[in-house]
Amino acid sequence: MIRTTGVLLRLIRNKHVDYSRVPQLSESDLEEQFVRGSGPGGQATNKTSNCVVLKHIPTGIVVKCHETRSLDQNRKKARDYLITKLDNLLNGDSSVQAQIKAVESKKRMDKDRRREKLNKLKAEWKQRESIE
């Protein structure tokens, strides 16, 4: 879910999304641990501690990231995930993720409405031309 926001932000024009209420992370509010990862990958995964566990102390939200073999990339992604979770918790319907979902829903509804209108016009034309 969180992963997709980065991709979706590129697809949706910025004029529809308000970033002003996104919370800022303070390093003093974070507790960071590096633990061994799990899953496929063999020795590279099982012997290295490149899984990042971030805890936001004021809210108690915990995020675990082990998507890449790079510790630095996992740290950055974990912080992004934590910001998204905090935004969803604090801002609710006005969070970035909710705004993106609303824009996509509106686009989908507009597309469905256009498709229905076209099908209706096509059916009327077929009836008028006595086709089928």
Question: In words, what does this structure look like?
Answer:
- The chain has a 3-stranded antiparallel sheet, covered by helices on one side.
- The N terminus is likely disordered.
- It has 132 residues and is α+β, with helices and mostly antiparallel strands.
Detail the topology: elements first, then pairings.
Elements: H1 2-11, E1 30-35, H2 43-46, E2 51-56, E3 61-65, H3 71-91, H4 96-129
Antiparallel strand pairs: 1-2, 2-3
Characteristics:
4 helices, 13% strand, 132 residues, alpha+beta, three-stranded antiparallel sheet, disordered N terminus
Low-confidence stretches: 1-11
> What is the CA-atom radius of gyration, in angstroms?
22 Å
What is the terminal separation in angstroms? Answer: 46 Å
**How many DSSP H or I helices?**
4
Helix content: 40-55%
Query: Strands of the largest sheet, in order across it?
Result: 1-2-3
**Global structural class:** alpha+beta
Strand content: 5-15%
Number of strands: 3
- Tertiary shape: elongated
Order of helices and strands: HEHEEHH
Q: How confident overall, as mean pLDDT?
A: 85
- What composes the largest sheet? 3 strands, antiparallel
In short:
With 132 residues, the chain is of the alpha+beta class. It has helices spanning 2-11, 43-46, 71-91, 96-129, and strands at residues 30-35, 51-56, 61-65.
